[in-house]
Amino acid sequence: MHKTYVSNSETWVYDLSANTWTNQAPATSPSARYGHAMASLGGDQVLLFGGWDVSELNGETWGYDLSANTWTSQVPATSPSERCNHAMASLGGDQVLLFGGLVDGGWDGETWLATGFYGGYRTYLPLVVK
């Protein structure tokens, strides 16, 4: 049996009330990937980090704005290492919590706080959980 995998970088939005999916087709978007994580930044903005990008781990950060239908590459001063299969959750405002994932050396248990996206500053802060 032969399996064919097609990767693409499409952006789809689900409308719960209409029960429909719409391909947004923004002019620019992150590369195709899987094992990435996304979290809401509030309003109609989301943050994407990492994933497996065809043949390697990815450490990119992207923000998507539904109103403008634009993806914007974010370049934080500090950020987690490249990873996939991690988790992200919105903490409200423009704060997102990132935990764990698969990195080059195996599974990672780091916790990071992403804050300031779409604000004045952009950074990830490593958190020490005791």
What tags apply to this protein structure?
130 residues, mainly beta, four-stranded antiparallel sheet, 12 strands, globular, disordered N terminus
Task: Quickly describe the structure.
By secondary structure, the protein is mainly β. 0% of the residues lie in helices and 48% in strands.
Major sheet characteristics: 4 strands, antiparallel
> So what's the overall shape?
globular
- The end-to-end span amounts to 49 Å
How large is the count of helical segments? Answer: 0
Q: Which stretches of 5+ consecutive residues score pLDDT under 50?
A: 1-6
Which structural class do the helices and strands define? mainly beta
The arrangement of helices and strands along the chain is EEEEEEEEEEEE
Number of strands: 12
Number of separate structural domains:
1
Integer average pLDDT: 86
What does this structure look like?
- A hairpin with a 4-residue loop joins strand 1 (12-15) and strand 2.
- With 130 residues, the chain is an all-beta fold.
- Helices cover 0% and strands 48% of the residues.
- The chain is globular and about 40 Å long.
- It has one domain (27-127).
- The strands form four sheets. A four-stranded antiparallel β-sheet has the order 3-4-5-6, with no helix packed on it. The protein has a four-stranded antiparallel β-sheet with strand order 7-8-11-12, with no helix packed on it. It has a two-stranded antiparallel sheet with strand order 1-2.
- The protein has strands at 12-15, 20-23, 37-42, 45-53, 56-65, 70-74, 87-92, 95-99, 102-103, 106-107, 111-115, 123-127.
- It is built from no helices and twelve strands.
- Mean pLDDT is 86; it is low at 1-6.
